[in-house]
């Protein structure tokens, strides 16, 4: 008996360390997930408070104020009418009749967390690829490999344009992006960042210091830590695309002193738009200005803001200055070069004392507003969620914890007392619900830049979507009006029409000061990377009369609530439709 007991004791001693190790590993793995998005499992998923929780009041609770959405997990809104801020009642439907996209919310959330975890782990794996591989693989790519160079983020040589893609960056992708914008050199760093320019960096580095594998191409090298793998872009491809990327900006009154206003100039007999654009592109200027046989290059500035265009007839006969109103007007073209005066961004060096939300209903232009704010202030914006597509395009605040206070403001689609009162103040972005619903439906079925198919629009998913999300559009605004501590109301349509004045309001609300030239740079780069290409016209009206009646009633309710809080009401274009 004693011998058996001794053997058991010996076995337990051997397994003690193993059990301890497994327990520690389990706790560490769980912490990695919880620290990044601990609230996701509790909240409504990756797009804010779920639509089927908005503006619902369980039986017996009508008339007691807006109900916390978390109490309504199993309800689904019908086409009921908002009747006021303190008496909101809608009939509940059986959950089994909910649309498929609502029923699958939890599985989508689990997939999102799983994808984030795998990306996080893969990003932490040490690079084993040696720098000499960069030389080994250059023959596989178009363009000429120039070498490994030092990259100083404060004095960057290749600063003409910047691109990020933390999942699919390749050498060819970077070269094509730079060639499309008429740059001579393409440089890659950190395995996922692409920089363009027309001058080689001054400081060469050892080949082995460029040792970061491209995120989208195994075996290829995309620079390193503060190191650039630089390629000379294939001239033929760049030449083919230059003409297509020159955009006519208009006819404008010329400044009094052209040589003082524009840093570079060229006098060329028989000057053409292509000649001037190519000259300015090589000088890395976004504007090409033509007056007679003179070409000028520069940026939009306070002296030449491009705000007051003139009749194009005043610029007719531009190559004959005597017929050009005595040389008082000039033609302006946008070159393929990016205006880089406002592209530098960073995290706050000290934690923000004021926790600011950038709140909106999905599809209301939150991503575009973040683009404008980041470029105007020079600081990253954060997010209550994690969107890999946004992170890959340069929104680095996506991967930062939303409560870190290292970002200038935090994107959220949440509503409800608890979620709103976490913030000290908020910019509330409101967009026409008709446009918002269509934008979010497009995003849900085709991503940030795509369009839902006609089959999607004509399916039963669309009316289910409208019935659920229309009430959420209204409840989102009403909740922020009720629980928000300090609000700045921005209407998407006003921001689009009067960009600089509205952007100034937002920047001042964030307690930041910016120069006029930086704001003009933002205006010059206003679209960002997530503007859908044109308005895809449908040959049918997606909204039925029943849908219109429902949405219009929500619009009137929100308009009344805004005016009741002494805010400007909704733009008149919202109704009628």
TrEMBL record:
Keywords: Repeat. It holds the Pfam family Sulfotransfer_1. SUPFAM superfamilies: P-loop containing nucleoside triphosphate hydrolases. Residues 142-234, 245-342 form the WSC domain. InterPro entries: P-loop_NTPase, Sialate-O-sulfotransferase, Sulfotransferase_dom, WSC_carb-bd. One of its GO terms (molecular function) is sulfotransferase activity. The keyword Repeat applies. Signal peptide: none annotated. PANTHER family: SIALATE:O-SULFOTRANSFERASE 1, WSCD FAMILY MEMBER CG9164. Belongs to the WSCD family. This is WSC domain-containing protein 1. It comes from Eudyptes sclateri (Erect-crested penguin).
């Amino acid at each position: 008996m004693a011998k058996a007991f001794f053997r058991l004791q010996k076995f337990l001693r051997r397994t003690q360390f193993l059990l301890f190790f497994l327990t520690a590993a389990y706790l560490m793995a769980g912490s990695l997930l919880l620290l990044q998005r601990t609230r996701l499992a509790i909240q409504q998923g990756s797009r804010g408070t779920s639509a089927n929780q908005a503006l619902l009041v369980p039986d017996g609770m009508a008339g007691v104020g807006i109900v916390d959405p978390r109490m309504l997990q199993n309800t689904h809104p019908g086409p009921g009418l908002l009747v006021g801020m303190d008496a909101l009642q809608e009939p509940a439907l059986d959950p089994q009749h909910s649309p498929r996209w609502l029923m699958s919310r939890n599985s989508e959330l689990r997939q999102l967390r799983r994808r984030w975890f795998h990306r996080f782990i893969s990003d932490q794996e040490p690079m084993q690829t040696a720098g000499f591989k960069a030389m080994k693989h250059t023959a596989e790519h178009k363009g000429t490999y120039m070498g490994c160079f030092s990259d100083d983020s404060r004095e960057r040589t290749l600063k003409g344009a910047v691109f990020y893609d933390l999942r699919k960056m390749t050498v060819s992708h970077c070269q094509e992006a730079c060639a499309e914008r008429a740059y001579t050199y393409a440089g890659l760093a950190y395995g996922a960042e692409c920089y363009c320019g027309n001058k080689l960096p001054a400081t060469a580095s050892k080949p082995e210091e460029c040792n970061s594998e491209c995120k989208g191409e195994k075996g290829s090298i995309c620079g390193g830590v503060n190191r650039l793998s630089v390629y000379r872009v294939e001239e033929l491809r760049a030449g083919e695309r230059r003409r297509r990327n020159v955009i006519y900006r208009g006819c404008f009154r010329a400044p009094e002193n052209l040589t003082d206003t524009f840093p570079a100039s060229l006098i060329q007999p028989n000057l053409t738009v292509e000649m001037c654009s190519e000259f300015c592109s090589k000088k890395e200027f976004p504007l090409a200005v033509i007056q007679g046989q003179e070409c000028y290059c520069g940026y939009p500035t306070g002296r030449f803001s491009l705000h007051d265009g003139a009749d194009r007839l005043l610029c007719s006969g531009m190559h004959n200055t005597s017929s050009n109103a005595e040389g008082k007007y000039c033609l302006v073209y946008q070159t393929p070069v990016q205006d880089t005066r406002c592209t530098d961004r960073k995290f706050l060096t000290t934690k923000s004392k004021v926790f600011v939300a950038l709140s909106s209903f999905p599809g209301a232009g939150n991503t575009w507003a973040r683009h404008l704010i980041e470029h105007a202030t020079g600081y990253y914006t954060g997010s209550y969620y994690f969107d890999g597509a946004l992170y890959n395009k340069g929104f680095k605040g996506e991967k930062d914890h939303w409560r870190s206070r290292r970002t200038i403001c935090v994107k959220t689609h949440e509503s409800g007392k608890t979620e709103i009162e976490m913030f000290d103040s908020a910019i509330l972005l409101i967009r026409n619900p008709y446009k918002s619903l269509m934008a979010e439906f497009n995003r849900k079925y085709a991503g940030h830049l795509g369009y839902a198919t006609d089959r999607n629009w004509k399916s039963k998913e669309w009316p289910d979507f409208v019935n659920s999300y229309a009430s959420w559009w209204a409840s989102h605004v009403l909740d922020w009006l009720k629980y928000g501590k300090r609000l700045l109301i921005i209407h998407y349509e006003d921001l689009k029409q009067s960009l600089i004045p509205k952007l100034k309001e937002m920047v001042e609300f964030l307690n930041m000061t910016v120069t006029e030239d930086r704001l003009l740079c933002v205006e010059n780069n206003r679209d960002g990377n997530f503007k859908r290409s044109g308005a895809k016209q449908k040959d049918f009206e997606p909204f039925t009369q029943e849908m219109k009646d429902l949405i219009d009633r929500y619009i009137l309710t929100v308009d009344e609530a805004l005016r009741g809080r002494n805010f400007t009401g909704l733009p008149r274009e919202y109704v009628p439709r």
